[in-house]
Write a structure and sequence with these properties.
189 residues; D-amino Acid Aminotransferase, Chain A, domain 1; 5-stranded antiparallel sheet
Length: 189
């Protein structure tokens, strides 16, 4: 709480309960990254070929090791077991389906029929909640790219973990402007 108390009063925060019983992949935690692209016309394109991001070590609530709980590649790549189980700690959704069929076949869970549609619904819900703040300068012929991270619990329910906005173009544009190359910029966000 001391961290929150030290923040400005007009700060915005999201609190999220830790999912204690995630579906595990070979005893390890994983999440799913899905990409979505939003155009200046508010069209949402969903790339259904997402991928799993796996933890390096076996899951246990009692283990304080971040390599057990956080599946972000930017963290996992620094762990000593990174890539031990699969290259880059990533797998296709086909690998998830094979795992579900082999280890939970009696439930008949289909990534394509049950999990992907729920992720699509959550993407649409999040887009609708933020729609008015997208493309504030009303630029034409531009888009924003979003990374959506999902987790599945032991009951095969899909949960939205976070949405990452990839509007990193501002840094690129600033660098191009400094070099005098800003006239050929394609605005992305």
């Amino acid at each position: 709480m001391s961290f929150l108390n030290s923040q400005p009063a007009d700060s915005y925060w999201v609190a999220q309960k830790y999912l204690e019983r995630p579906l595990l992949y070979k005893e390890r935690k994983f999440d799913i990254r899905i990409w979505a692209l939003v155009t200046h016309r508010n069209e949402v394109f969903f790339y259904k070929h997402g991928y799993m991001r796996t933890a390096s070590d076996s899951y246990s609530l009692d283990n304080p090791n971040n390599y057990v709980h956080l599946t972000n590649n930017c963290l996992q790549k620094h762990g000593e077991n990174y890539g031990k189980h699969e290259p880059g700690n990533t797998l296709s959704l086909n690998a998830l389906q094979e795992y579900l069929d082999q280890n939970h076949g009696e439930f008949g869970v289909s990534v394509e029929k049950h999990i992907v549609p729920r992720m699509r619904d959550l993407i649409i819900d999040s887009f609708l909640s933020a729609k008015k703040s997208l493309n504030p300068n009303k630029r034409k012929n531009c888009f924003e790219l979003f990374g959506y991270d999902f987790i599945i619990d032991e009951d095969f329910r899909t949960w939205l973990l976070e949405v990452i906005a990839f509007c990193l173009v501002e840094t690129i544009i600033m660098n191009l402007h400094k070099k005098g190359q800003h006239k050929s910029i394609l605005w992305l966000c």
